């Protein structure tokens, strides 16, 4: 039996900014996003993007999980909310992530729990955060 083909997507992002202003981010395939840092500015700051990456990955993974469990046709909506707590001492980081799933539809609590647990196993972002990935940095003049 042939191996299933994995769908691949070019990934990555580049942020740039000048002496003043905020970062402008461009994804490897041309998506753009402007970053904000003011507490009341609408938009995303870097920590929001971390939460957004995890929440969107978990929501999509929960849909995959529901399909694998054979209950996708009974799901109305899946919401994954992510928030966190910043560490009170250095280095600057998020010390705790909080995930809340809301799964509506004609399913019981046990099935909701199974979907959420399986989603965390499927999600590339949550798996990466759990694994302490190696980070390599290079520096150039341009």
TrEMBL record:
SUPFAM superfamilies: OsmC-like (SSF82784). InterPro entries: KH_dom-like_a/b, OsmC/Ohr_fam, OsmC/Ohrsf. Pfam families: OsmC. It comes from the Bacteria. PANTHER family: PROTEIN YHFA (PTHR34352:SF1). This is Putative OsmC-like protein. It comes from Mycoplana azooxidifex.
């Amino acid at each position: 039996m042939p191996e299933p083909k994995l769908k691949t997507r070019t990934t990555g992002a580049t942020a740039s900014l000048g002496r003043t202003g905020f970062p402008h981010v461009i994804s490897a395939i041309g998506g753009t996003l402007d970053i904000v840092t003011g507490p009341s500015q609408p938009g995303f700051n870097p920590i929001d993007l971390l939460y957004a990456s995890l929440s969107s990955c978990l929501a999509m993974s929960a849909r995959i999980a529901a399909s694998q469990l054979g209950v996708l046709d009974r799901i109305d909506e899946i919401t994954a909310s992510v928030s966190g707590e910043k560490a009170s001492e250095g280095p600057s980081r998020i010390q705790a992530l909080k995930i809340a799933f809301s799964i509506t539809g004609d399913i019981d609590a046990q099935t909701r729990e199974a979907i959420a647990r399986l989603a965390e196993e499927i999600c590339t972002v949550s798996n990466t955060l759990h694994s302490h990935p190696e980070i390599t940095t290079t520096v150039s003049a341009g």
